[in-house]
Amino acid sequence: MVALGIDFGTSGARAIALKATVQCLAQSRHRFAAGEVEHPSAWRRGLWKLFSDLESSALSRVQRIAINGTSATALLCDRTNAPLTPALLYNNSSARSALPKLRNIAPAGSPTLSVTSTLTKALWCHRTLPAERAAAVTHIAHQADWLAAQLHGQPAISDYHNALKLGYDVRSR
């Protein structure tokens, strides 16, 4: 079996194709230009660049793909998974005004109670979007989830690691 691991960060992305024996078959890297990391179109270009730079012999053997992105980097999307906002980066703290509302509903100690949590940013962004764009929002997608959706063509689906900063409670599932 060959697995492809893809890691997206704030400065760039990288991919590595590994055999089950942890032998590296191929790897590639892509660096974002200044100011690109907030644009999902740059993520998409970077993803395709990673694939195109991998040796075709290794790529043709890939059976599994895992994508990792920067935690709490997300964007609001419409029903077709098209981004309606630039990426809200993991360290974006402009959602400060949404935090008091969360303090009224989130339990103490929740990872959502931070100006950089995904939920805080999503609430702020949704409130500040023009009405016609806000009405089109159907879901929030974390970076890794949105990138995976580019590969499988289905709406973005998250896992509990990313969903923690949206309020998912691991203990109670």
Q: Any descriptors?
A:
single chain, four-stranded mixed beta sheet, 173 residues, two-stranded antiparallel ribbon, Nucleotidyltransferase, domain 5, alpha+beta, 6 strands
Would you write up a description of this structure?
By secondary structure, this protein is α+β, with helices and mostly antiparallel strands. The chain has two domains: 1-68, Nucleotidyltransferase, domain 5, CATH 3.30.420; 71-173, ATPase, nucleotide binding domain (Nucleotidyltransferase, domain 5), CATH 3.30.420.40. It has seven helices and six strands. It has a four-stranded mixed beta sheet with strand order 3-2-1-4. A two-stranded antiparallel sheet has the order 5-6. The longest helix has 14 residues, at 40-53. The model has no long low-confidence stretch (mean pLDDT 92).
In CATH, the homologous superfamily of the largest domain goes by the name ATPase, nucleotide binding domain
Shape: globular
Query: What fraction, in percent, of the residue positions are helical?
Result: 25-40%
Average residue pLDDT: 92
Rg over CA atoms, rounded to whole Å, is: 17 Å
Task: Report the sheet with the most strands, covering strand number, pairing sense and barrel closure.
Answer: 4 strands, mixed
Q: Please identify the structural class as seen in this structure.
A: alpha+beta
And the CATH topology of the largest domain?
A: Nucleotidyltransferase, domain 5
Distance between the termini: 31 Å
Strand percent estimate: 15-25%
Domain count? 2
Uncertain segments:
none
* CATH class (first level) name of the largest domain: Alpha Beta
**What is the number of helices?**
7
Question: Could you give the order of strands across the largest sheet?
Answer: 3-2-1-4
Q: Give me the strand/helix succession.
A: EEEHHEEHHHEHH
